[in-house]
Amino acid sequence: MLGLVTALVLAAEPSGVRWERVDVLSEDPGLWLSQEAPRLGVDALTPAVRFLTQVKVVWSTPVQGLGFGVSVESQSLVYEYPLLQQANVSLSMGMQTRLLLPRGALLGVAWRAGPVRVGLSLSVFSEATWSRVNYSYWTALPTVGLGFGRSPEPSEP
Predict the structure, then answer these.
(1) How far apart are CA 90 and CA 80, in angstroms?
(2) The domain that contains 45 carries what CATH number?
(3) What is the spatial distance between Cα 147 and Cα 157, in angstroms, rounded to a whole number?
(4) In angstroms, how far apart are the furthest CA atoms of the chain?
(5) Is 61 helix (H, G, I), strand (E, B) or coil?
(6) Is residue 155 domain-resident?
(7) Residue 8 binned pLDDT confidence (cut-offs 50, 70, 90)
(8) N or C: which end of the chain has fewer CB within 10 A?
(9) What is the tens place of the pLDDT at every residue in 102-139?
């Protein structure tokens, strides 16, 4: 599934979709820091594997500020609206999916310095899966994201 999405995005590159960055610490859903990092001293293998599954590749779209990200763990569609352009701070809001099943949303702020992006968000998501589509249990979690890639395009005046 991930390979198919990646192939479609790369094939669409000339139409305005392009690689933007790699989030080495993803805000979506943001479980690694709270659930896996504390276990590193006890069992390093499981947190290391889960770290790799949350690394997200992000592409920008022809719509200014709209991007989508794909990792093994989740997919997201996020819009970033400039709040303080001189300080490179933006409001980020988006939808999260697991294997393209909608499962939550995130809202936060992002700061960019050249190719570096740091995000602080509130991630709200359900435990719904395709085999158990149940939206009765929700988790709200503060998250941190760290990404590296292209410098953002200058916004239109």
Answers:
(1) 6
(2) 2.40.160
(3) 26
(4) 52
(5) coil
(6) no
(7) low
(8) C
(9) 999 999 999 999 999 999 999 999 999 999 999 999 99
